[in-house]
Amino acid sequence: MNEFEKNVQSKRNDAVDSGVGFVVSFGFFATIFIIATVVKLIAT
C-alpha cells in the first residue's frame, strides 16, 4: 500500500462527483442551445 492510498484527500463517492460534473456540463450546453434558439427565433 503506497502513501497515496493511506492519505486520501477526499473520501467522497466518485459517482457523486461524476454525476455533478455531468449535470453541470449538460446544463452549460443546454443553456447555450436555449440562448441560440431564442436568438434564432427573434432574428426571423
TrEMBL record:
Lineage of producing organism: Bacteria, Bacillati, Bacillota, Bacilli, Bacillales
Record protein name field: YqzM family protein
Organism listed in the record: Metabacillus halosaccharovorans
One family name in Pfam for this protein: YqzM
Residues that span the membrane, as ranges: 20-43
InterPro entries xref list: YqzM (IPR025416)
Key words of the record: Membrane, Transmembrane, Transmembrane helix
